Amino acid sequence: MSTDKVPSLRHQVRVKVGLIGDAQVGKTSLMVKYVQNVFDEEYTQTLGVHYLERKVVLGSTDVIFSIMDLGGQREFINMLPLVSEGAVAIVFLFDLTRPETLNSIKEWYRQARGFNETAISILVGTKYDLFVEMDSKYQEEVSRTAMKYAQVMKSPLIFSSTQSSINVQKIFKVVIAKAFNLTLKVPEYKQIGEPLLIYKSLGPTRPPSPNKRQVHTPPPSS
């Protein structure tokens, strides 16, 4: 009798994630940093939609992130359905050093929700490495406003820095936890002045029916 082990069966699930926000908030930089672990200080404007994939092993399941970054210029708004429709999560990004980009989230959120009502929303403030050097009063004002936005959006709130590798990986860990209703053991940061990471009290506690978001819960690993 052969003693060869039966190869373990692996499952694969695709998780589409859209990155949306104003121009130059760092959407492409975040995506490239997460997928390729590279940060390029030279800004490259996204013309239309930029697309990358990354595989994450979750137990006996390979989670394939299909990440789509929409150019922030208004002439690309007609491509918003391409990024939003069928997405498991939509990450709304704003530049912590430019408060007008946070104000723009209202309209991005309204339009994206028109194409996808069930996607998990994640609100991400970028360029934390520059933000933390700014006036403390400004930091408090922006942080509190972002918290209010996140509450209205029912969205986790994460401050990140692509250049300093702050909370980049954790954004997508939160996406997985929310998408599959898993417990995430990453510590939260809630104090103003810290790189905010609030996901337990903000965002959905239990996801909608998986079929609505075109994703199936991976089986537990043996």
From TrEMBL:
The keyword Nucleotide-binding applies. InterPro entries: P-loop_NTPase, Small_GTP-bd, Small_GTPase, Small_GTPase_Tem1/Spg1. Residues 203-222 are annotated as: Disordered. Keywords: Nucleotide-binding. It comes from the Eukaryota. GO terms for molecular function: GTP binding; GTPase activity. SMART domains: RAB, RAS, RHO. PANTHER family: PTHR47978. This is Protein TEM1. The lineage of its organism: Eukaryota, Fungi, Dikarya, Ascomycota, Saccharomycotina.
